[in-house]
Amino acid sequence: MHIRRNPLLRTAVAVTVALGLTAGVTACADDGNDDSVITIGSTEADKSQWKVFQEKAEEAGLNVEIKGFTDYNTPNRALSEGDLDVNQFQHILFLADYNVNSNADLVPFGATQIFPLGLYFKDGTTVADVEEAGEVVVPSDTTNQGRAINVLVQAGLVTLKKDGLLSPTPADIDTDSSKVTVTAVDASQTVTAYQDGTPAVINNNFLEGADVTAADAVFKDDPSKPEAQPYINVWVTTADQVDNADYLKLVEIFHDPEVQAAVQEDTNGSAVEVTTSAEELQEILADTEAKIKEQN
Question: Where is the signal peptide (predicted)?
Answer without folding.
Answer: 1-29
